[in-house]
Amino acid sequence: MKTQVKWRDGASFVGETESGHALVMDGPPDFGGNNTGPRPMELLLTGLGGCTAFDVVMMLQKSRQDIQDCVVDIDATRADAEPKVFTQIHIQFTVYGKDLSDKQVARAVELSASKYCSASIMLGKTAEITHDYEIVEGPAPKTAMSL
Q: Is 146 left (phi over 0), alpha (psi -120 to 50) or beta?
């Protein structure tokens, strides 16, 4: 896997992935940025969310669960001193569907955390990672963040 990051100006960088996707990363104005993109550490947490959500959705689909949506909320704390690594990360899954099995959802979350999600396992070397889940009957409500 490869990626390239190129400096634009100030605290702004463009990253391009091996799969051909590009994104802008930027810092806050007080660090010379223009706030035109997410911070790199935000992307790290977003990648963690995507990695673990992918696992959970795939496992539930393979176990023939009628999953209709999965929302992952992540709350993280960083160290006060440099390097400001993540020290605590809490991952909250809200899984929407019809007649979802609590046992299957719990198993999918646990297997993602302990075996499949590379991002979670890697970040777990410096951070205490906790998980929780909620099962909601039916589809997820539409929100401003719904894509």
A: beta
* Measured distance CA(9)–CA(47) in Å, rounded: 24
- Report d(CA 100, CA 114) in Å as an integer: 22
The residue behind tokens 């979670």 is 120
Closest CA to 133 of 141, 125, 115, 111: 111
pTM to 2 decimals? 0.91
Instruction: Tell me how far apart the alpha carbons of residues 28 and 7 are, in angstroms, rounded to a whole number.
Output: 15
Digit-coded pLDDT (tens) for 35-85: 999 999 999 999 999 999 999 999 999 999 999 999 999 999 999 999 999
Domains of the chain, earliest start first: 1-38 (2.20.25), 40-137 (3.30.300.20)
* Tokens linked to 38: 């997410």
Give the Cα separation of 65 and 102 in Å (integer).
10
